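Please decode residue identities from the backbone states below.
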């Protein structure tokens, strides 16, 4: 072919290269703009979080082991025989079919026998809780069930009751100790029963009032038939102190993401004489222990909001 033909050919190739370069630049330009809009140092689209949010771990509604701490209520005191612990009917870890304890409901009877432990002590106050949780931690339970505080209000006089400030410090110490030893354990905290209702129910029984005269919770139960202003003030002082204690339990527990309370359910439960020991008309009967177990199970197995 001639020179004219060669020039047209070279010209055509140059146009093709220019077009290809322009197309490549356009494609690269769109890609770079797209990355800049959603990434790099540019702000994220409106409504999208700049960082993934962290959520607290979900509460495990089926822990594999349970340890209980607290006082005579958790030991089943006076539920089976006079002046005796009866841990087999404990609301927390008992084996009795009549109670169907929290541990049995969660683990089944066979596993509860091997993987639940009761470290509560009759007569214990909040100041004793740290030692109890220290012993319980050796078992490495997945759930620790707590019911303590009634004995802090049940004193010889209202002035002898544990102060709210001391109660808070003691409960916080127990929780801090537990967390150091068991950082992942869950904690269920029961509210303290309504001691004034206990007086109003038990005082209808002549035998109960005779037993109370032996010195059972005198700050509330002393001089059970008296309705004068001094007795009324004394009982209301105990009632109010229990309410303060329950608020402390709620507040301290709320600071721990693996702790939950019964939201006041035990304190608000409208128990009658059938739920009281017929030995002392103060501690829970077997039926009363079963009601406590039911409340605890509902709280532990409730889905997180």
């Amino acid at each position: 072919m001639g020179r004219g033909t060669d020039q047209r050919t070279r010209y055509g190739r140059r146009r093709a290269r220019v077009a290809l370069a322009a197309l490549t630049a356009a494609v690269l330009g769109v890609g770079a703009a797209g990355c800049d809009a959603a990434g790099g140092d540019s702000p994220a689209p409106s409504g999208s979080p700049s960082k993934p949010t962290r959520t607290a771990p979900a509460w495990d509604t089926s822990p594999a082991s349970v340890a209980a701490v607290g006082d005579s209520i958790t030991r089943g005191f006076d539920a089976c025989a006079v002046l005796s612990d009866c841990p087999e009917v404990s609301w927390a870890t008992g084996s009795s079919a009549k109670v169907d304890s929290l541990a049995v409901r969660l683990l089944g009877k066979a596993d509860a026998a091997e993987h639940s432990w009761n470290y509560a002590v009759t007569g214990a106050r909040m100041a004793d809780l740290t030692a109890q949780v220290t012993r319980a931690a050796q078992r490495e339970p997945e759930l620790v069930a707590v019911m303590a505080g009634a004995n802090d209000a049940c004193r010889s006089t209202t002035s002898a009751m544990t102060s709210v400030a001391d109660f808070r410090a003691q409960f916080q110490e127990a929780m801090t100790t537990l967390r150091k030893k068991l950082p992942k354990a869950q904690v269920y905290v029961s509210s303290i029963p309504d001691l004034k209702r206990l007086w109003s129910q038990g005082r209808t029984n002549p035998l109960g009032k005779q037993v109370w005269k032996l010195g059972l919770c005198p700050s509330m139960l002393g001089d059970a038939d008296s309705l004068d202003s001094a007795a009324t003030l004394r009982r209301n002082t105990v009632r109010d102190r229990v309410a303060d204690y329950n608020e402390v339990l709620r507040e301290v527990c709320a600071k721990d993401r693996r702790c939950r309370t019964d939201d006041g359910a035990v304190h608000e439960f409208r128990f009658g004489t059938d739920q009281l020991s017929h030995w002392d008309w103060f501690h829970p009967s077997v039926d009363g222990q079963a009601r406590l177990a039911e409340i605890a199970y509902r709280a532990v197995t409730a889905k997180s909001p």
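Observation: Residues 1-56 have pLDDT under 50 and may be disordered.
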